[in-house]
Specification:
The structure is a single chain. The chain is mainly α. The N and C termini lie far apart (about 40 Å). The model has no long low-confidence stretch (mean pLDDT about 90).
Amino acid sequence: MRTSMATVKGPASYFPSIQKKYGRPITEWKKLVRTCPLTKHMELVNWLKSEHGLGHGHANALVAHTLAEDVGR
């Protein structure tokens, strides 16, 4: 018997590899993004890359997901 699992799509699909590679839970990364004084998407991406050593794709996924969540708050 085959069971179907929901496939995570979009920015959140990067989350398992982000946690594994950088050793912090996603909630911690989102908190860093939210408490950073920068507010623009690319500023935040560049900040994560320069200050925390994230790759572009991982930084972009975190920022995109976090900002999208905050729009609904």
